[in-house]
Design goal:
The complex is a heterodimer.
Chain A lengths: L11 E5 H11 L4 E4 L7 H6 L6 E4 L3 H13 L4 E6 H17 L5 E7 L13 H6 L4 E2 L4 H17 L4 E6 H4 L1 E6 L15 H4 L3 H24 L3 E4 L6 E5 L2 H9 L5 E4 L1 E3 L3 H9 L3 E5 L5 H8 L18 H11 L27 H10 L3 E4 L24 H12 L8 E7 H17 L5 E5 L29 H7 L7 E4 L4 H13 L4 E5 L15 E3 L18 E10 L5 E9 L19 E3 L13
Parallel strand pairs in A: 2-3, 2-4, 4-5, 5-7, 6-7, 10-11, 10-13, 14-15, 15-16, 16-18, 17-18
Antiparallel strand pairs in A: 1-8, 6-12, 9-11, 19-22, 20-21
Chain B lengths: L3 E9 L4 H14 L3 E7 L8 E9 L12 E6 L2 H7 L3 E10 L6 H4 L9 H6 L4 E5 L1 H8 L5 H9 L7 H12 L4 H19 L1
Parallel strand pairs in B: 1-4, 4-5, 5-6
Antiparallel strand pairs in B: 1-3, 2-3
Helix pairs in contact in B: 1-6, 1-7, 5-8, 6-8, 7-8
The chains are: A alpha/beta, B alpha/beta.
Chain lengths: 620, 197
């Protein structure tokens, strides 16, 4: 996008990389956008959903999302799907064959890598998919580039009839910068042109397409050599030249303002000859790439001498604080920056929300003995932490059910009397858990499944899902009936319980009964996520000091609104020491779910409104 | 290299750290600077540590403030100020809300809340300004006003007029009704006063 094309009347706006993707899709005339929520990419579709004339959806998982975008592209429209890095693993089945078909309408796949694992179960380098699937990979380094490059991606996709990967990282998605938008395009879309030899990937047809894919690789490699997104920046100090891309570019440029470098906006296929020539103009060549040694390996294979992961780390972000000492070591220089330590302050591990409907579940799970509990991806993964310590595994979306099945079938005699439990949320169940349940019923597993239906994708901020009965725009749509669904998947009707997770006695009873059953059972909880509008706040609770005995039962709930005021060691009649913890409730945070009342034997927890001297200001 | 102003805003989820950082950014934009603002979010909604880096100058490259180089820190909670104090440069102003918020892991006795965090902060080579913005917000009638109070408190520490920051704050509330607008203006001014008192 040249400066001349940019509308001078457009003011600069201050936006995140995620919003830049959304605006680029809108301005490129994209007609279909899809995603499953996932940090750090979630906001892309949230922004897009607000634009008129652009169809958007929360898909049930990333594979479905990509296939929806593929369909739109084949129908002749520009399409985009967005996902976090692990989402691409799910979508990859479609990706690996779609590369043979290519794109009709511009097809852009935005993948956000959580470099540094701010909210993910692993760290992965999505640029690999470009290599694996023979697709070009674009990497913006700030919000302006994210806008420009995403728009460019649609054109590139159509020009070479190829799906294009735009690789973002957390530092791109969640950093705001100033952006000037360019004039929007209107894309009408084209007619669906039947073309079975290209669109129907049976062996005979696919075989014909493979050589075309390799041809495309060559064409794109040539294109990359002169692509305007691959920029050589001159520098006075030629001791070290850098090859870099994405967020790492900004870090390198800041740390070494006078070093020459090549910034790769189109990082795969890389412009090998351009880099070879550049390598000869500097004393040492260093590749700075987040996360894996991809460019490095390819450049070495091309016979270019360089440094890479032998000097800079292979995990986490490559900020100036990381790069500078690495380069100084390479040059045998004295360390210029002192290592700055953090002050030793207590951690603030993420907690479940005040009044979260999952609190009651984990309270029960932590009180049921003899369990092996397979967990899943969502807020409820926090059940692995204090005070519940009630999860034994967490791997990938939907894995709780299938892993539980494996534990059931693979357990030794020693674990014969263990209760195998799977815990999964509504949206994760719909994403990839249903298959696991069918596997359990079909193969006669003995698992108790807790299906925590809070009608939203809680961890990413309460987005809608088919369990919400509301679509991405907030409009009414179908709402999955989990009881019927589980029945259809083979669970006996009498083994399905739907209950209110704030009613602890009911929950305990159901759980204790179902773990005894020698067949699959499902306990569905039915109260909404407290982050959503469905949740109705109630008047807050308080603790009557004179009644609190310090038993600390309520602390086992794990609600962050319950705070310890003082601890006391007492000696019991039998001579044993016991620690008492007296509590208060943060009335400003409490929303009156009443869960903790169930756990308080001396009835010390009461509605604040019942206490005569309550302070009106406190409950604002 | 061109002069870059580095501001760290630190606190915990739900305190308005991101919003405060956004308003500082908007003010810098109004002054014609290039601005980048980053955040460590992810778990922010779950009571975790939240930090936001605001950098502005002629041209900002890396969005992250290297440790030891922040010119100004705005801390919404005293223990958080202590956690991040080594990230500011010598003599940098550190503006601290002294209203403590201990997480459950502290309340339950697994970890200790730092004793006298302000005294500990004083042992660092910084310009410490601290006051109880939490209680002040409760006096003004709404805990969410901490944000505007803290912005008022640092208004004099920026390389541009306090009025610019105030305008950026008020722009945020211009469509939210006269009452909320007035309340936030009052909070901003109360913060200005508290910081100079």
């Amino acid at each position: 996008m040249s400066a001349a094309e940019q509308d001078q009347n457009n003011p600069r706006i201050f936006i995140s990389g995620n919003e830049a993707v959304a605006l680029a899709a809108r301005d490129a005339g994209c007609r279909v956008a899809s995603a499953y929520p996932g940090t750090p990419s979630t906001e892309i579709l949230e922004y897009i959903s607000a634009y008129p004339n652009l169809y958007s959806e929360w898909s049930i998982n990333e594979k479905v999302s990509l296939e929806v975008a593929i369909g739109a592209s084949l129908a002749g429209s520009r399409a985009l799907c967005a996902m976090k890095h692990v989402g691409m693993n799910v979508a990859s089945d479609a990706l690996m064959t779609q590369t043979l078909i290519g794109a009709v309408g511009g097809l852009v796949i935005v993948v956000a890598d959580d470099v540094g694992l701010s909210s993910s179960q692993n760290e992965q380098d999505s640029r690999y998919w470009g290599r694996f699937a023979h697709l070009p990979v674009l990497e913006p380094s700030d919000s302006q580039e994210t806008y420009d490059i995403t728009r460019f991606a649609f054109g590139l996709s159509e020009q070479y009839a190829v799906p294009v990967i735009v690789r973002l990282t957390t530092r791109i998605c969640h950093v705001k910068g100033l952006v000037t938008l360019s004039t929007p395009q209107v894309e009408e879309g084209h007619k669906f042109n039947k073309d079975a030899s290209r669109f129907v990937m049976v062996p005979g047809n696919a075989k014909q397409r493979i050589p075309l894919m390799f041809e495309r690789d060559k064409t794109l490699a040539n294109f990359s050599e002169s692509c305007a997104l691959n920029i050589m920046e001159q520098g006075e100090n030629r001791t070290i030249g850098f090859i870099t891309s994405g967020a790492a570019y900004c870090h390198v440029r800041e740390a070494f303002p006078d070093a020459p470098l090549i910034k790769l906006g189109l990082s795969h296929p890389a412009p090998i000859e351009l880099i070879r020539e550049f390598a000869q103009s500097v004393d040492k060549l260093v590749v700075i790439e987040e996360v894996e040694a991809l460019l490095e390996t390819e450049l070495r294979a091309a016979g270019i001498e360089l440094f890479g992961k032998d000097v800079v780390p292979r995990i986490g972000e490559l900020t100036p604080t990381v790069i500078t000492p690495a380069i100084e070591r390479l040059l045998g220089k004295e360390k210029s920056i002192a290592t700055i330590g953090m002050t030793d302050v207590f951690p603030r591990p993420p907690t479940m929300c005040v009044a979260c409907p999952h609190l009651g579940i984990y309270y029960c799970l932590s009180h049921v003995k003899n369990t092996i509990i397979a967990g899943d991806i969502g807020c409820y993964t926090l059940g692995a932490g204090h005070p519940w310590n009630a999860l034994d595994t967490c791997i990938s979306m939907g894995a709780s059910l299938s892993v539980a099945q494996g534990i059931d079938k693979g357990r030794s005699e020693e674990d014969a009397n263990k209760n195998v439990i799977a815990v999964i949320g509504d949206s994760t169940f719909l994403h990839m858990g249903m298959q696991g349940l069918l596997d359990i019923t079909y193969n006669k597993g003995n698992i108790t499944i807790l299906l925590l239906d809070n009608r939203a994708v809680g961890m990413t901020g309460g987005q809608n899902a088919p369990s919400s009965g509301i679509d991405i725009h907030g409009e009414a749509t179908i709402q999955v009936d989990f009881r019927k669904l589980c029945e259809a998947l083979g669970v006996k009707p009498e083994r399905i319980h739907e209950l209110n997770p704030y009613e602890l006695p009911t929950l305990f009873k159901a759980l204790r009964e179902e773990v005894k059953a020698k067949e699959p059972s499902v306990i569905i909880t039915n109260q909404p996520c407290v982050l959503t509008e469905r949740y109705a706040k109630q008047p807050p609770l308080t603790v009557e000091d004179d009644k609190c005995t310090g038993c600390s039962n309520c602390l086992d709930v794990g609600c962050p609104a319950i705070l310890v005021t003082r601890r006391e060691i007492v000696v019991k009649p039998n001579g044993k020491e016991k620690e008492l913890s007296f509590v208060k409730i943060d009335t400003a945070a409490c929303t009156g779910c009443n869960l903790c009342i169930n756990t308080c034997a001396p009835d010390a927890i009461v509605p604040l409104i019942n206490v005569a001297h309550f302070n009106a200001v406190e409950i604002k | 290299m061109e002069q870059i102003t580095n501001i760290m805003v630190v606190g915990i989820g739900g305190q308005g750290v991101m919003t405060a950082a956004d308003i500082i950014s908007q003010a810098a934009i109004m002054e014609g600077y290039d601005v980048k603002k980053t955040e460590v979010a992810g778990m922010a909604q779950r009571g975790g540590v939240v930090t936001s880096h605001v950098r502005f100058g002629k041209k900002v490259l890396s969005p992250s403030i290297p440790p030891g180089t922040a010119d100004l820190m705005l801390a919404f909670e005293p223990a958080e100020a202590l956690r991040w104090v080594t990230h500011v440069k010598d003599q940098a102003t550190v503006m601290v809300n002294t209203y403590p918020q201990a997480p459950p892991v502290v309340s339950i006795g697994l970890f200790n809340y730092p004793e006298q965090p302000e005294a500990q902060l004083q042992s660092h080579p910084i310009e410490l300004i601290s006051f109880d913005a939490g209680s002040l917000s409760i006096e003004l009638g709404d805990r969410r006003l901490v944000n505007s109070i803290m912005l008022g408190a640092i208004a004099k520490q920026l390389p541009f007029s306090s009025d610019v920051l105030k305008a950026a704050l008020l722009a945020r509330f211009k469509d939210k009704g006269a009452k909320l607008l007035a309340l936030n203006e009052t909070a901003f001014e109360a913060g200005q006063q508290a910081a100079t008192a």
